[in-house]
Amino acid sequence: TKKCIDAELMLLKEGFNPILKRYVRDELVQDVNPYTPFLSALEYARNEIKVVPKTKVNMKSQLGFLKTAAMQLNYFNLGISEIKRRHVKMLLKKIEENNPTESNSRYNKFRTNLKILFSFLLELDYEIIESNPVSEIKKKEEKGTVKEILTAAQRKAVDMHLRKKGLMSFRLYNRIFFHSGIRNTELLKVQGKHVD
Fold it and tell me: 92: part of which helix (H) or strand (E)?
């Protein structure tokens, strides 16, 4: 019960409005200091950092997983300056336990985005943290996946099917796609001015 109450209080401190069932930006931390709860500080960094929109969306999602893990580990009251490498490692481990199907690639992206957020806080003028606790956490080895490709016989069958159906434009596209090694999105962007 105490954990639930503490969790609820933490959400309120972070600007969560239980009536609206969402975070209200005006109520969020507008500035950070070494005693700012680490989740609030990371959210502040995410809002302020200049990254591509896709990365910002990924960071938002990842911070949701981080909040869940922080609640489970009872870390949500820790100030940003109290966060050490061991805390981050335990958080990453808890996130893995909560999501056992996650790949090493996802773990590495999560680690990289956390490193970016902590680096942002490290560079702020008011010395919120002394070092980046994610820097010394190693990436996990990623295993590349081999994509299945059609055999020559399968490509020939596709070509014959397109020919029988009279789909000559698609048949031409199909041949270029298979023989050029170009990505689908790149091929669709090719225009007449690109061909000499």
Answer: helix 85-98
Amino acid at 160: M
Judged against a pLDDT cut of 60, whether residue 152 lies above it is answered with: yes
pLDDT above 50 (res 132): yes
pTM given for the model? 0.63
- Whole-number percent of the chain with pLDDT over 90: 42
For residue 22, what are the β-bridge partners? Answer: 17
Residue 178 confidence (pLDDT) above 90: no
User: DSSP state, 194?
Assistant: G
* Residue 97 reports pLDDT greater than 80: yes
Spell out where the chain has E strands. 16-17, 22-23
Tokens of 100: 């056992």
CA–CA gap between residue 162 and residue 156 (Å, rounded): 10
Q: What is the DSSP letter of 117?
A: H
